Amino acid sequence: MAAAQLINNPKEISTLYRDLSQFPSLNAVSIGPEVTTQYGGKYSNIYTEWAQRDLDRIEQVKFCRQYIIFHDNNAVVYAGACGNGSEIRGELLSSESPSGALKAVLRETKNKKGEDTQFLEVWDKNRKVKSINLTALDKHGKVYEDEQFGCLSWSHSESHLLYIAEKKRPKTKSFFESSAGDLPASTDEDDDGAGKVVKGDQFVLHEDWGECLVNKSTPVLCVLDIESCNISVLEGIPEHVSPGQAFWSPDDTGVVFVGWWHSPFRLGLKYCANRRSALFFVDLTGGKCETLSVDSSAVFSPHGSAQTSVVLCI
User: Which SUPFAM superfamilies match (predicted)?
Assistant: First the structure.
């Protein structure tokens, strides 16, 4: 066996690191529906997402690549890549519809002021058919794209999208901050309803879920009606839990999700996977929320079966 070679030269070390950084890592895989050709052959498209460090741009870049697999039920006849990989710009989440005809994409860009703006796009094959500015609608805070809470789930009818976002909070300002609309006899409440401004709470601390989940404190379940572009924030979720990893029930009349208890504190969820959690179901027709599992264990990564209405969890 050859002895390991020790590299001490900084230039050689940087060259080796640059070479190793060119190997991408697989982030996500999506298998499309099975298609039968007119000659009886069967194939499926596989969509993959990869991450690779770009040392010159000093950032982690994402790119996608598609593969096609032909099979005869017993064995793979052919498998290969379709074209070259292409970089994904600003894409945080993506999900194909059950039929494979549509694709939803959560994208984040910078506006003219340099502020982050989130869009939810719907693609039909090679054209974009919907682009909803979630930031402008202001129904909620930023959408969760992390593996702990995040989801982008199509309804079985392909008419609605389900996702997780930060709960919208009232705007805050100082007692000593005045605006053009303030009058000498104005009260402490500037607005009513969604536009209410709370004075004196601009430095209130909102506990978040800790490392890698900073600024993620109170997630809410959101449903987008693709046809009307209306967004609904689901009600009836217990206030003592944070919902995440949600998906539709087989008949699209309800949503199944994992709920993590806030007590004794939120901090450290990502690296403490055995935190108290349970599986919940919220009925969209009546707004009732019920627990599907025991509430003294830990639940993670639930998956449903449309055929048997069975939910599997890790």
Answer: Peptidase/esterase 'gauge' domain
Examine residue 64 and state whether it is found in any structural domain, yes or no.
yes
For 172, the token pair is: 């805050």
Task: Determine which helix (DSSP H) or strand (DSSP E) holds 28, and give its type and residue range.
Answer: strand 25-31
Structural domain tally of the chain?
1
Burial of 251 (0-12, 13-18, 19+ CB in 10 A): exposed
Contact 86, 143 (CB under 8 A): no
Length of the chain: 314
Q: Tell the burial category of 213 from Cβ atoms under 10 Å away from its Cβ (0-12, 13-18, 19+).
A: buried
Q: Which pTM value belongs to this model? A: 0.78
Is 213 in contact with 148 (CB distance < 8 Å)?
yes
Q: Would you say 50 and 22 are in contact if contact means Cβ atoms under 8 Å apart?
A: no
112-169 tens-digit pLDDT: 888 899 999 999 977 899 999 999 999 999 999 999 999 999 999 999 999 999 999 9
Contacts (Cβ under 8 Å, ≥6 apart) of 207: 217, 265, 266, 267
String of b and e for 214-236 (b: at least 16 CB within 10 Å)? eebbbbbbbbbebeeeebeebee
Q: Is residue 224 part of a domain?
A: no
- Rg (C-alpha) for the chain, rounded Å, is 24
CB atoms near residue 237 (< 10 Å):
20
